[in-house]
Description:
- There is one protein chain.
- The chain is built from 12 helices and 23 strands.
- The chain is α+β, with helices and mostly antiparallel strands.
- The strands form 5 sheets. Strands 1, 4, 5, 6, 7, 8 and 9 form a 7-stranded antiparallel sheet that branches.
- The longest helix has 71 residues, at 11-81.
- The radius of gyration is 51 Å and the shape is elongated.
Amino acid sequence: MQKFKTPNRSFSTRLSLWFTGCSAAILLMVMGVSLYFVYNKIKSDTISISRHAVETYVNEISSTFKVAEVAALNMTPAVVQYIETPDSLTTLLKPILDYNDYLYGAGVAVDPSYHVVNGRSIAPYLCRTDKKGEYSYRTLHSFLTEDWYKEAKEKNVRHWTKPFYGKVGEKQMIDYQIPLHDVDGHFIGVFMVDITLEWLGTMIDSQKIYETSFIQILDGDGNEVISRGNPLPEKSSYTFTAPIENVGWTMFINSQEKDVMRPVRVLRDILLLLFVLGLTGMLFMTRLLVGKLAKPVIRFARAADEISNGNFNTELPEVKTEDELMLLRDSLDEMQHELAMFISDLRESTENQTRIENELQIANKIQLSMLPKSFPSYMFGTMVPAREVGGDLFDFLRKGDNLYFIVGDVSGKGVPASLLMAVTSKVFRNVAYHVDHPGRIVSSINHSLSENNSQSIFVTLLVGMLNMKTGLLTYCNAGHNPPILISSGRVSFVETETNIPAGVINLFSYEEQKVQLQRNDRIILYTDGVTEAKDMREEFYAEDRLLQASTNSQNMTPEDQVNYILKDVQRFSQNTFQNDDITIFAIEFKE
C-alpha cells in the first residue's frame, strides 16, 4: 500500500471550506425560504388589509345610506297621515333634518290625482343652507315633469336614485325615494331625503392605504361617482373591488406593487448584509478551530496507514483527554489485535462459503434432474423451489393402461427437505412398478420414512392411479391439498379422506378413494406453496383464486394451463419473498 503523505491541501482547510460552503448554502436556502414566506405573508397581509379597507369603506358608506333609509321609513307613516296639509308636512320635514346631520334635504311630492290645495299641487321641500342650523324652504312646482318623479312613480318601490347635481347649491347628491300609498294601496306621492356626496371624499382621503393608491366608485351604469388619485397600470398594481349593494355602486382600490413590496426589499437587504458578515466570521472561526482539532487526527491517520500495511504493532499516539479521540485510540488498539484474527477467520469463512455454494448448486442440479423433464401431451408439471433446493416433488410413470403419479410436500425447507424429497421419489418409483394400489404405495413410503425418523420430518402426499382406458381414478391422500377436477366446464375440488402425512406413524392404514373421469376431464395437483403465497398486504392467494385461475385456463393445454396458474400466482405475490416451494401438476384423461 501507498505510504501516508501530508496532502497539499490539509484536511482542516478542506473541512473549513466544506463547512463554510455548506453553511453558506444552508443560510442561502433559509434566507430564500424566509424571503419566499415573508413575501407571501406580506402579500397576503396586504391583500387582507386592502380587502378590509374596501370592506370598511363599503360598510361605512352602506351604513350611512342605511341610517338615511331607516330615518325616512320611520317618518313615512307621519307623512302619509298629514299628506293633505302642507303646513303639517313642512313641520314634519324639519325634525328629520335636525336629528340627521348627514341629510341635506327632505321633501314630499303629492300626486295631483290624489289631492291639491287651492288648485295647486302639494310639494314642500326643505334643505340646509350654508349657515349652520338654518334651512331653506321651497315648493317643487314642476315635479310632475321631473324625471326623478316619473321614475319613482313608475317603479313604485323605494329606491336610491343615481347621483345628480341639485339645483340648490349645485351639490352632487343622491336621493332616497319612498312611494306613498293610501290604505287601499293607491299611489298618492313620493317622500324623499337627500344626501350630498361631499362626505365620501373626506372619508376616502382619511383612510387611504398608500399615498399612491387609486380609489374609485362607479354607479350601476359604470359612471364615476367619485375618485381619488391616478389610475395605475394593471401589471404593476393590485386591484380590489366590493359592491355597495343598497345603492348599486362598486368600489375599486388600486395599490402600486412597489409600495406593497417595500418591506420585502428592506428585509432582503438586511438579510444579505447579515449573511455576508456571518459567513466571513464563520469562515475565520471554523478555520481556526478545525486546524487545532485536526492535529491529533493526522497522527492517528499515520498510525492507521501503518496498520493497513500490515504493521499491527504500530505504536498509537497518546491521548490524555477523555473524549472521541480517546475512543478512537481505543478502537484502533482493539482493531490491531482483532484484525489479524479477522483476516484469518474471513479467509476460512470465504473458503467454506464458496464450498457450500458450490455444493448447493450441485444439489439443485441433482434435484431438478430427478423431476420429470419431458411430458406426454396430456400432462405437464413444474416446480419452483423457494431456496437453492426445495422439498416439493412430483413424478409419474406409465405401466400398461395405468398412469401412476405423485405430488408431495416435505415439511421444512432447504437441504434436509430435498434429501427426504429424493427418498420419497425413489420409493414411489420402486413400489409403483410392483404395486397396483395407491394406498399400498403410500403405506410403503410411510414405512420407509418412519424408520429412523429422529428429526420427525413428514411428507404430505397424494398418489393416484388413472386407468387410461376406462378413466377410473384411484387415489390416496396423505394429508395433502385436495386436487382440482375440471369436468364438463365445472371446476371444483375433489373430496378426499383424512389420512395423516407419511413419516408420522409407521404401519398406518391408508384409505383409497375413487372417482370416474370422463373423456377430456382434467385434474390439477399442487402444493400449499400455491394457496399460501402472499401479496404485499399479507393476504393469501387461497383456494378461491386458484379455482378462478383454473376456470380461466380450462380450455388451454395442460402445459399452458400450468404456466398460466404459475404466472397468476407470481403476479399476485410480486415484490414479496417466496416462502415456500411451488408445484403445479396437470393431468388430462384422453384415449
